[in-house]
Amino acid sequence: MRCAAGREVVALVYGDVTIVVDERDDLFYTQAALQAHQPGEGRITVQPTPASGSPAALAQDMLYALGKRLAPGPNSPDVWLDSVNAAWLAAAAWGVATGVRHVMVPRAHLLTFRRIDQLLAWRELTGAQLTLLWQKPPRGLPLALARVERHISSREQFEALLAEPGPIPARPSFPPALPAMTAAAAAAGQPPAPLPGGTGAASMRPGRRTHPCAGALATAQLVQAAPAIEIASEEAAALAALAHPLIAGTLSVLAFTRAGLGSLRFTRDLDITGDVCAIKLHGVGHRSCPLYAVPAWARPLLAGARAHHRLTGQPGDSVFAPVLVAEARHLRAHAERLPRLGLTRLAAILVP
Predict the structure, then answer these.
(1) What is the pLDDT of residue 352?
(2) What pLDDT score does 166 carry?
(3) What is the CA radius of gyration of the chain?
(4) Inter-CA distances, 106 with 32, 70, 110, Å
């Protein structure tokens, strides 16, 4: 398997993985891959950190390409993203939530086989197309990627590869406004009334079976969601840059509802509508379970939290449960780094 003379490049395909063998290390291909980075179009370019020995380094590079930023310092609240599994799970959740279709990785020949395996596992979770630039002779390719499927013999063909739409991502839609509700709207600015039929107060006496609290979609058919509290665009951008989807999702809900952290302890997958336009919170004993409209800036963050929850394979648990342990110290630390949002007190309250 050899590259021909001139500018010929060999593309090896393994499922939805393409290895572009650029034996001459032509600068054009690296520049084209970097210019193709368009997250809003579902296309990102991940630049591996050179010579990093951190096991989670490539996952963190992926998070960076997705617009996420880890908090710096030895006592960083993002220290749990130093774990390989946690970092790749976060990267997969953001990839699914933001609709990533195609990921390009220049200098892939510098990656260890272990990190290549991690990339392949990430692709399996997200369903995205993966293109690796192998900028040396192909003799060192992993055996799993050594099958020649097609050849690219010109720069134009490489650009066409980058322009391919890629797989259709399993992403949510983010419509500009809540759909119309079928019941009479609650007064503007007031929380919605509890629903009848067990969605409000429920008997908690021992031995008495309680009616399950309805999810967000069922609730939205009866009452209008309470409007979201507005925050400055700079603060919304700061929340969007948080690396862990559960941290970003939790703090965003606190920001636009001003609810206590305890209200998120029982939030299930079905408490977020499919279009991520509304979320339902729960009080103790389900005596007060208001429905809130989700503002446009927060929808990708809640979609990331829900994707993270689904990828863990524990649909019956609370979506935000993993960050509500150990006195929610990671949440509090991030809240303290965003003082203008005033979330420190809310993030410290574990009971509504």
Answers:
(1) 41
(2) 67
(3) 23
(4) 10, 22, 9
Give the burial class of 232: count Cβ atoms within 10 A of its Cβ; 0-12 exposed, 13-18 middle, 19 or more buried: exposed
C-alpha span between 204 and 310 (Å, rounded) = 29
Q: Tell me, what's the pLDDT at 158?
A: 81
Q: What is the pLDDT of residue 96?
A: 92
- pTM comes to 0.81
What tokens were used for 191? 């929380």
Tokens 């209200």 label which residue?
263
Residue 300 vs residues 101, 240, 249, 295, 328: alpha-carbon distances, Å: 16, 8, 9, 10, 22
Rounded Cα gap, residues 278 and 275, in angstroms: 8
| Count of other CB atoms within 10 angstroms of residue 186 | 18
In this structure, are residues 186 and 224 in contact, taking their beta carbons and an 8 Å threshold? yes
Q: Residue 185 in contact with residue 224, Cβ under 8 Å?
A: yes
User: What are the structure tokens assigned to 133, written together?
Assistant: 């630039």
Confidence band of 179 (pLDDT split at 50, 70, 90): very low
